[in-house]
Amino acid sequence: MSALVEVAELEVAYGDIAVVKGVSLEVREGEAVAVIGPNGAGKTTLFKAIAGVVRSRRGAVRLHGERIDALRHYEIVRRGVVYVPAERELFPQMSVLENLELGAYASYASRSERMRFVLDLFPRLRERRKQLAGTLSGGEQQMLAIGRGLMARPRILLLDEPSTGLAPFFVKEMYRQLARLKQEGLTILLAEQQVPHALAFTERAYVLENGRIRLSGASRDLLGDPEVQRSYLGVA
Ligand code: ATP
């Protein structure tokens, strides 16, 4: 299976300080892949660089073999690489429907069909479609952030810490919906602090520490890896 997204020797810096230090990884079509690691390891920066939100200073990002790292963010979104930020970045004074509309890069004709797809996936958003985004619960805001990403018809969704601030019930609920999307063939790259969830949901994972990949492999193997267990799963 060829890679949908390939990251090769990527280096990203803020000023003089390198935060992503020669990272290589790949995500194949239809796969769910996790990037785990402690706070400040560089996960968000890596995702932003893949999505063209920040620029890399060395290395390459390829989509189906074609370099995309020099493109502008919106051109990368158009090609189907969609980043859902941990901070959600919704417009609190706009309604659920308006926030979803803002994610739509599709043509006007297919927009309503896409909207239906998102509202079918998240019935809760349909119920609250006229409500202001700022009045939604944390779990609903996360659904809205993912829904807005889906409006752009992603080929790959880069989900940054989707469980941040969610009660356990909503975390479970969100992963159920992500599993549905995965079943429908969506490719997912996931950064997650909740390591057991991330490793249970994905087929493969990379451990990022201090800007470098320290470990990688099948998620179920990493679940049994003593180093992962000690550092991320609280096993003594
Ligand atoms: P977290 O889970 O806390 O978000 P992370 O693994 O996603 O962590 P990043 O957010 O990518 O890590 O941060 C990596 C490093 O880069 C950190 O030391 C952080 O302080 C620094 N950093 C992040 N954004 C900026 C910025 N805009 N300017 C300068 N430094 C930054």
What report would you give on this structure?
- With 236 residues, the chain is an alpha/beta fold.
- It has one domain (29-53, 78-232): Rossmann fold.
- The chain contains ten helices and ten strands.
- The strands form two sheets. A six-stranded mixed sheet has the order 6-7-8-3-9-10, with helices on both faces. A four-stranded antiparallel sheet has the order 2-1-4-5, with helices on one face.
- A hairpin with a 2-residue loop joins strand 4 (58-63) and strand 5.
- Helix 3 runs parallel beside helix 6 (138-151) and helix 4 (108-121) runs antiparallel to helix 6.
- The N and C termini lie far apart (38 Å).
- Adenosine-5'-triphosphate (ATP) binds at residues 14, 19, 37, 39-45.
- Adenosine-5'-triphosphate (ATP) is lined by residues 14, 19, 37, 39-45.
Keywords:
10 helices, four-stranded antiparallel beta sheet, alpha/beta, binds adenosine-5'-triphosphate, single chain, six-stranded mixed beta sheet, 10 strands, 236 residues, globular, Rossmann fold
